[in-house]
Amino acid sequence: MSRLTPVCFLIVACLLGSALAAAQSNAPLRAGAAKTNITSPLGTPIIGGFAPFPAQEVHDELHARCLVLDDGRTRLAIVICDLLGVHRTLSLEARRLIREATGIPPENVIFAGTHTHSAGSALGVSRLAYDQPLDDYQKFIARRVTDAVSLAISRLRPAEIASGSVDIPEHVFNRRWLMREGTAPASPFGKVERVKMNPPAGSPNLVEPAGPVDPGVSFVALREPGGRLISVFAAYSLHYVGGVSGRAISADYFGVFCEELARLAGAGDDGSPFVALLANGTSGDINNINFRQLEPRRPAYEKMRLVGRDVAGRVHGALAGVAWRDRAELSASYRELPLAWRTISSELLQWARETEERAPRLTRGDIPVEAKWPTTPDWVQRLSYAGRVQVLARAQGPALVPLQVLRIGDIAIGTMPGEAFAETGLEFKKRSPFARSFLIELNHAYFGYLPPPRHFELGGYETWPGTNYLEPKAADLMLGALLEMTESLRPQATR
């Protein structure tokens, strides 16, 4: 009886390994989707405005919605949560738990907020703090996100994939407007500016928007082979809609979209459920208000229902024209880019201290973001920024900014950990080497607004220190890094 020599054994092992790898790379795609409830307890601060207030009502529940993809060699998880944003320590903990429970590596998991302004805070005690212990609500979210990923994996089944986009310009407007000289109000720090965020609609002092809009809704759809839909993951560059009644919790139009698309898909209770996900694209300078003309006041929740249902209907209609395939190679790239914090001058620190000395101190009421006490309405904004700039001045650099790109066949999904501008998202789509590319924001961390460098000379809310956390070139540096990461995921044959 002959024996295999060590060399022959090695050759056979390599051939078997190559055959297994080839079989895995040609394996049909599998997909599973799930959602879990992450509604915050009443009393949790809702942080959509300058002075967070405790939630007193639940209009509609908040969810973590998850899609898991498996190509036989790689698993990717996309988790979109009905939250204004997520702190980096929460993302680190959630992805640690996901790896322990499922084996999916942290760099293969997207974990982003939608930016609803009517959700409990997942940013902890301070949204500007780089590191901080998790509070009880953040621990709850981390556990429920892990549950969503585990459930989605338990529902993995053969799937076909399709992608596309549909333009819906009717709902997106640039909210940063160049004003006639001398008509834009000064910043809280007394600086004269050229741009006003959310100017008076129909004002004769409006000149033109300070940037473009991105009307495209990009989507990735999964279905059972020739059968019913499993999930649709979409992204739209619209900040939020609002129009909530009182101090109520709501997922905003993002939740409406997901429920309406489930209805249109005919999702029932039999078998594994259909789950839709809607991420926020790049909407740091975009909202739903047409500032060229006055609009009638609408009843609470009417506008978000109108927008959510219309976007869902248009995406559902676009599914009729897509091409389906049963394979898509999966990969991911993750990087933590070191960036400098926003520089806080000694003059600005002096302004902050003087503001705190002058601001009225109330014994009760809602405390402005990063402030130490409640104050009267006319001082809320200034007191908030006095606290913000002092926190930023204490920041130790560099900030390690998480960037991520997922590749799904010929689709590239880039992410940013803050509120990016529409022009940044459009630039990524234009320069990416992949046929289908789009950016989503608020992934893995919240580093404030990310204006392209040219906007800092124009001024406006999004450029103020305390709204913007990082160095003025941050958006361009992040975009450049993301494009490099995207190029690295391109198949060798197409380079």
What does this structure look like?
The protein has 495 residues and is an alpha+beta fold. It has two domains: 28-332 and 400-494, no CATH class; 346-393, no CATH class. It has ten helices and 24 strands. It has helices at 6-25, 88-102, 136-154, 252-264, 302-318, 346-358, 380-393, 422-431, 455-458, 474-489, and strands spanning 30-37, 45-46, 53-54, 57-58, 63-70, 75-81, 109-113, 157-158, 160-167, 173-174, 176-179, 195-197, 206-209, 216-223, 229-236, 248-249, 275-280, 286-287, 330-339, 399-408, 411-415, 419-420, 436-440, 449-450. Strands 7-6-5-1-8 form a five-stranded mixed beta sheet, with helices on one face. It has a four-stranded mixed beta sheet with strand order 9-14-15-17, covered by helices on one side. A four-stranded mixed beta sheet has the order 19-20-21-23, covered by helices on one side. β2 and β3 (53-54) form a beta hairpin. The chain is globular.
> What radius of gyration results from the CA coordinates?
24 Å
**Count of alpha/pi helices:** 10
Strand order, biggest sheet?
Answer: 7-6-5-1-8
**In terms of per-residue confidence, which ranges show pLDDT below 50 for 5 or more consecutive residues?**
6-24
What is the percent of helical residues?
Answer: 25-40%
Shape: globular
Average pLDDT across residues?
A: 93
Major β-sheet annotation: 5 strands, mixed
Tally of individual domains: 2
Strand content: 15-25%
Number of strands: 24
Our measurement of the CA-to-CA distance between the termini, rounded to an integer number of angstroms, reads 50 Å
Indicate the structural class: alpha+beta
